[in-house]
Amino acid sequence: MRTLILYYSNSGNTQRVSEALAQRLDAELGEVTCAANLDWNGPHAMGWDIFTRHRPHIDMLTPPGAHYDLTVIGGPVWAARAAPPVMRVLADHGRELGRVGLFVTRSGSSPRFPPEPAIAEMAAMLPAPAVATHIFRQAEIISGAYRVEVAEFARALRTEQAAV
Length: 164
Prior knowledge:
Elements: E1 3-8, H1 13-25, E2 28-33, H2 42-52, E3 59-61, E4 70-78, E5 81-82, H3 84-93, E6 99-106, H4 116-123, E7 133-137, H5 138-143, H6 146-162
Parallel strand pairs: 1-2, 1-4, 4-6, 6-7
Antiparallel strand pairs: 2-3, 4-5
């Protein structure tokens, strides 16, 4: 099974999870970048994109010409929504990806901004249900406990992929 882990990471949390997941699944890594979020006014651009649901221009750094049996897409939760660069990936490519797994990373713990709507928003962009989904929280990422969750998510992805 050829797998791609495609991620957007602003703080490094999603990158850490993606790298651990790629290692578990013997998958290739692809990174989504958004130059507008790296400019001097990046925080303002991110805020604008979150609240207007604007999907900014992105670049995807992926292995050229590769076909994957499974693509796992991950990104952060911003104000209970999927990060706009991730939504751009799904808007532009969600219908052509085939089997997809989704995950988000969450840094906050406010009940006002739960991560579940972000996963639902991402899943709504797909033509078929996601193979598996997972929410990773910053406390577990910092402590290292996320590795257990990565193993569980990888097992769910493999199980669902094998069922096909």
